[in-house]
Please model this.
Amino acid sequence: MGGEIKIQDLNVNSFIDEKVEEIRRIVGSGIAINALSGGVDSSVVTALGHRALGDRLRSYYIDTGLMRQGEGKQVVDLFAPLGIEARIVPAGREFFRALKGITDPELKREAITQTFYRRAFKKLIMDSGAKFLFHGTILTDIDETVAGIKRQHNIFAQIGIDPQKEFGYRIIEPLVELRKDGVRKVGQALGLPEALFNRIPFPGPALAARVLGEVTPERVRIVRKATAIVEKNLSGTGSFQYLAILHEDRVTGVRDGKRAFGMQIEVRCWESHDARIATPTRLPWETLEKMAGQIIARLPEVVSVTYNIAPKPPSTIEAV
Ligand code: XMP
Model:
């Protein structure tokens, strides 16, 4: 493994054959687990691992309490017809406990990482007897972590952490040479439905990457609702990614003729190929207006809706 396979050099079928062989060699007759979030990378890694190991790869959907509306059931239902069974593991309480009182973005990411790897995955590893954990890490995750931009939730070896020593299991990352566009091609070739391999990216820390300030069940509920509205309104744009962010600061507003010190939602919608650089989509004013109208109608706590028009860099795609 190592280096980058550029999209124009990617021979999808031989990539899949090589990875299948490599996975079989590493895992031998053992079993492996993976956390299937339903995001593009974890879906592709699940399909690839399943092709290599069949039922010896156990897939779990960890319900962190930070996922989007109805996401768990949706993911399980999308994989069932492929013969891949994903079990839902409820873990919301544990994640919210770990996030309590934390407002610093990198500490929030760290709390999520620790809860995943030291608690949730470790328990699954111990219960299943597996020695390997599959990861959907891609090259962009590594670049940003190594550059110190964001500590992506799934990066270890590249920043000097040995998972075997730290957590007691080995991590297998078959997609690390690819970027998002390559991952999508592999997903398509593995027979994933378009609803999966063409899904907009969604980060490992989930909605916590979109809540500025403390991540509480109530604040996640608000951003989850706003996210559902944004996704519904923008799914036809063909944009790379679109999302809602809940700000920490409140602003003065007015509701029913009375002062309301309310919450702010920021909408972002990105044009990008590989998430390294991105520009805001030039959305029609009518689309923005309609979406903002729905957010303020359905979320009485919110008094301000903004649209980010700064590119990445200096912005990033997620807010945390
Ligand atoms: P940023 O916000 O760094 O995001 O511009 C770049 C791309 O990566 C996604 N993202 C993540 N994906 N783990 C992931 O698997 C993470 O911790 C993470 N943080 C951001 C983000 O949604 C965007 O597509």
Summary: The beta strands are 32-35, 57-63, 86-90, 132-134, 170-172, 241-246, 251-255, 258-271, 279-280, 302-307. Residues 141, 144, 150, 152-154, 201, 203-205, 209, 241, 275, 312, 316-318 surround xanthosine-5'-monophosphate (CB under 6 Å).
